[in-house]
Each structure stands twice: as structure tokens, then as C-alpha cells.
Design a protein that fits this description.
With 342 residues, the chain is α+β, with helices and mostly antiparallel strands. The protein has 14 helices and five strands. A hairpin with a 2-residue loop joins strand 1 and strand 2. It is globular and about 65 Å long.
Length: 342
């Protein structure tokens, strides 16, 4: 079985196939089908094969950019909380670490408005990513970058100084259609090598409001007997729980020096770590009760480092593990996820 990130990718491709008039394969026979946090590897491969048969490599890259079709998934919320391309990539890399992905995207070189990236196997993993896997990952990163409002986005597919001609695309232009891509991509042997370029003056704010279920609730800590400064920090964390809320980042948000912030919180018996974890745990509890998303997916979206970290910190703040909390308090009528997937 594949991880929840692979399941989200499959959901994206299936929804995009429907939206573009293509016929996806029948969903897997499990009771929750594509709603599950995991899907069989065989089904993932069948979806990719169906895209290739009905459209080709260019269509696969195009469909993977439709990240808007994942609105409502925790992964969508976590990735689209970024403000620019480098932060988006950092969040993607955290997702790879969270699910212990066998493959990873590494930065080869970086400069303002440009990144040279490599999608490759992690150390100790013998199999490199299949070219279609690399194209799908690239498509998601390109689609998410567009959703962030990045302007002038271009990508070069292929290693610099390679024998084959790199494929150059300006994302969002008619030239980047599947018909123009198939032959060029088929001739490109290094689809895991990418160079992204964009205008650095672009507005990083999403051009459209992102529809989430449930909506982010910045008030979840308001009832706690905390001083105003702590509530201000909690609301900041709840607005984007997947961000890296370090002490330095929180101090910058408040306009205080690091030591001044820590001293002010200590006087109230609090710390940055406690506030951040309490906010994340309360938001995770909301997702657990109001959605059927898997525990790992919720933990990632709420900013926890990995599944054990989520389970440990949630239990420390709430008193129950995430699985037991959902079983005990989920509303009547809310479908219960398959226990194999939680």
C-alpha cells in the first residue's frame, strides 16, 4: 500500500481525468475507495497508464497541475499555505520526510527567482523514480506555484549539458499544451532534472480563496486562560499550522526580540513550544471529528514532524491518541475510516 501523499496524487489525477473528459479506471474495491488515505500500488499504476493511453506524457504533466481539484484535502491546505516557490518546495520536502518517501526532490543550485531541482532516490534506495512519477511531482509543484500567484513561471526539463535537448515550457501559455509536449518529453531521458524560473516581484498571495473543509479556525485557543500575547501567537499558528513556527519566527511575528518573547511567555507559565503544539493539537482534533481524512494526513497538515510525533504530542495535550480520540468523540453519522489506514 502507498502513503497518503500517493493517495492524494491518485485522487488528483482521477479528478483531473474526469474534468478533462478522460475515462479513469474503476476505483479500487475497498469500502472507502479513493477516499482512503492509502491506495493500492496497482491502482496507482493503472491510473497513470490510463492517462498515458488516452493522452500521453504531456497530458500527465497537465493533469498533475490541477491542484485546485484537491481543495478540501489536508495536503492541499498544507502546501498552499506557502508564500513563494522556495517555501513551497520546503513544505514538499517535509511531506516527503513525513511519509518516508523512497524518492525526494533536492535543490542542486538556487538563486533569487530560480531553482535547479533533482527528483531522485533517497540514499540506500536502489530504484530511481519512474519518469512518470517525476512528471507527476513536477506537475503538482508547478500547479501549486501558479495557485500561489507566481508570475512568469518557466521550467526546463532535463539536465544542463545533457546530450538530449531540454524541454522548455512557459507555464500557462498555449505552447505548454500536451500536443506540443509529447514528442519532446518522449525524447527526454532525464525527466527528474528541472530548472524553475519565475519573476521575483510576483504577488505571493493566492489569487483565489482556497476552499477548505473544515475552515481554518483561528479561535480554537481563545477560551484558554492565556495572556493576550499567547493568544496572538496561537491565532498566528492556527492560520497556517504547517509553517515552521520556530521561536525566531514567532519573535519576528510579534516584533519582539527572541529573549523578550521567551521572558514574557515564561512569566505566564508558557513557552513557544507549548503554544504551538496546543494550537496544532486543537486543530487536529477538529479535523479528526469533522472529516474522514487519515491520521497521517491530518498530522502532516497540522505541522507535526511525523506520525509518532503527532501521536505523542496529541496524547500529551489532549489525553488520548488521535485514533482513540476520533473513535470516542466523532459525531454520529461521520463515516469511520478503515482501521488499516489509520
Amino acid at each position: 500500500m502507498q502513503d497518503f501523499a500517493s493517495a492524494a496524487m491518485v485522487r488528483l489525477l482521477v479528478r483531473a481525468m474526469d474534468a478533462h473528459g478522460l475515462a479513469p479506471p474503476p476505483p479500487p474495491p475497498a469500502a472507502d475507495g479513493l477516499a482512503a488515505s492509502h491506495v493500492p500500488l496497482a491502482y496507482k499504476r493503472s491510473v497513470v497508464q490510463a492517462v498515458l493511453q488516452q493522452g500521453g506524457l504531456g497530458t500527465l504533466l497537465q493533469l498533475a497541475q490541477r491542484v485546485d481539484l484537491l481543495a478540501g484535502d489536508p495536503v492541499h491546505r498544507a502546501l498552499l499555505g506557502a508564500t513563494d516557490v522556495p517555501e513551497l518546495l520546503a513544505r514538499w520536502q517535509r511531506l516527503e520526510r513525513y511519509v518516508h518517501s523512497r524518492h525526494q526532490v533536492s535543490i542542486q543550485t538556487g538563486a533569487p527567482g530560480a531553482l535547479a531541482l533533482h527528483h531522485h532516490a533517497r540514499p540506500g534506495v536502489p530504484e530511481e523514480p519512474h519518469p512518470t512519477e517525476s512528471l507527476a511531482v513536477l506537475g503538482v509543484l508547478l500547479g501549486a506555484s501558479q495557485a500561489l500567484g507566481v508570475h512568469g513561471l518557466q521550467v526546463e526539463i532535463g539536465a544542463p549539458r545533457a546530450t538530449s535537448q531540454p524541454v522548455n515550457l512557459e507555464i500557462g501559455t498555449p505552447a505548454a499544451t500536451p500536443a506540443h509536449l509529447d514528442a519532446a518529453l518522449a525524447a527526454q531521458g532525464q525527466m527528474g532534472q528541472w530548472t524553475l524560473r519565475w519573476h521575483t516581484y510576483a504577488n505571493a498571495s493566492p489569487p483565489h480563496a482556497i476552499t477548505l473543509q473544515p475552515q481554518p479556525a483561528t479561535h480554537l485557543c481563545d477560551a484558554l486562560p492565556w495572556p493576550p500575547l499567547a493568544h496572538r501567537l496561537a491565532r498566528h499558528v492556527l492560520h497556517d499550522p504547517a509553517a515552521q513556527h520556530t521561536v525566531d519566527a514567532l519573535a519576528h511575528h510579534t516584533g519582539l526580540a527572541r529573549r523578550s518573547l521567551q521572558r514574557a511567555l515564561t512569566e505566564g507559565g508558557l513557552s513557544c513550544r507549548h503554544i504551538v503544539t496546543e494550537a496544532r493539537a486543537r486543530l487536529a482534533a477538529q479535523w479528526l471529528l469533522e472529516s474522514t481524512h487519515g491520521l497521517a494526513e491530518i498530522g502532516f497538515a497540522c505541522g507535526f514532524a511525523d506520525q509518532p510525533h503527532f501521536t505523542r504530542e496529541f496524547a500529551r495535550h489532549v489525553g488520548l491518541t488521535p485514533a482513540r480520540y476520533r473513535q470516542a468523540f466523532a459525531r454520529a453519522g461521520t463515516p469511520t475510516p478503515d482501521p488499516h489506514f489509520i
